[in-house]
Give the backbone structure.
Amino acid sequence: MGSKNNISSQRARRPLSIFAVIGLCCFFYLLGAWQRSGSGKGDSFALKAIKQTECTILPNLRFESHHNDIEIVESSEPKAKVFKPCGVKYTDYTPCQEQDQAMKFPRENMIYRERHCPSEEEKLRCLIPAPKGYTTPFPWPKSRDYAYYANIPYKSLTVEKAVQNWVQFQGNVFKFPGGGTMFPQGADAYIDELATVIPIADGSVRTALDTGCGVASWGAYLLKRNVLAMSFAPKDNHEAQVQFALERGVPAVIGVLGTIHLPYPSRAFDMAQCSRCLIPWTSNDGMYLMEVDRVLRPGGYWILSGPPINWKTYYQTWKRSKEDLKAEQRSIEELAESLCWEKKYEKGDIAIWRKKINVESCKKKSVNLCKSDNPDDVWYKKMKACKTPFPEVTSKSEVAGGELKKFPARLFAVPPRIAKGSIPGVTAEFYHEDNKLWKKHVNSYKRINKLIGSTRYRNIMDMNAGLGGFAAALECQKSWVMNVVPSVAENTLGIIYERGLIGIYHDWCEGFSTYPRTYDLIHANGLFSLYQDKCNLEDILLEMDRILRPEGAVIIRDEVDVLNRVGKIVGGMRWDAKMMDHEDGPLVPEKILVAVKQYWVGSSGNSTSSEE
């Protein structure tokens, strides 16, 4: 009987105990939430802890070069998938421009030099090694004139272009005297001559396009005049020319005028040039010059130096008849006039045309106008032999598409595409708020990594550039930013160019049109959320590793759930990485992952080594 009473009393107390435990749990949960909110007087310890993890220099991430001081810290967490190094034959692997793949395609219209990416089954899923002896490139501006031979061990251009002063080999470095095929005495003198016609000095000309750029000396010497050139050339028998350009710290991509539109928006460039680029401008009914017209801003300039200009002097050197060269120049003149370009200058080896500011200024009305409603929709789209129409104007003096301020004022002025409401949902107010936000973000990045803004990071990429706010907040002559607008994102690249910045369209499910080890700092904002249902995040991270220089830095900003997935992949990639809270504190679901790529090189013996 007594035992029954004990059992019943225990049963009675058990619910009370459970309720007491639940009550205590709720109390401490609410107390913790109250303290973390910053409302309570007892939160000083919480605030102190948060402050200790604010965006400061990370104690276990080293951003300086320290090639011979490599330490891999073993983690107590479960092992991530470890990515093995690729063989040394892949040291300069370019996924979408490999020679073996190119030779499967027709040579007609340079189709074989266009992008031809591997299938999912053919993709390399390994880490591209640096060459033995790889060294961090010279800081800018010394890098304009010198590069380490070990980083680009290719001497053919030093022989092939010796007379033209492209590049010379001296000891363990290459020297770039600043020459080019049409300016063997140096790019400076050549640019000085251009500046007698084109307003290069006053900020009117900020963005430029160099078609068939060689080692990009034109772009390299424009930089000191605050002109930012996008240079491109194919991966061809001029071995590693684009790789040389990027090693020098000059913007460049692998590219060609073939059958596909250039990956730039309409009205992007203030100036474009062909310095003996050997593009057949009048072929295919003038399609190539029509493509230059599409990307050339109303009022912009086109420079042609080389065949057929000055044919009377060079026809024997070029091994062509006078009649042939004379007819080619006449065809170019007629084509330029049909595009509403006016010839401004011809002297010696140089001819310069200027595109009219609107259709009202044209002497002849173009009859063969492109039918497309969106001249910025160009990713993998076929070119056609038609002229891109000028945007409409209300007066003969109005610049079609909108007049731009001189640089640097145009960097933060409201771009015409925004002022005219061309991008849905992007207003002038939104644009200004976006600029404020990116100034805040970049200041936070500089607290994380004090080398940002120094010459240590010359070549910078923003993988999902939006309105270009990141690049604008970083703007200085110590660095430049390749602003990438993903083909699956809102098309904002035209805005970026209207700010006086440069960039390119790209789909990150594929390899980027560059050589390995060409960027010092890579920034990715919201990129992995954008692509998480479109392709394998592992492939994007491996591509980032391919184009990032040893001891280069990465900043990834994204939602915490996505970053956790990214972090697991990064754990097997020879990156030293750390997740950090948002600038506004730990309650914000957006986080920042910062990383540094370890230094290691390929080895024929055991695939890799940390070079002594």
About this structure: Confidence is low (pLDDT under 50) at residues 1-14, 28-57, 68-75. The chain has 18 helices and 19 strands.
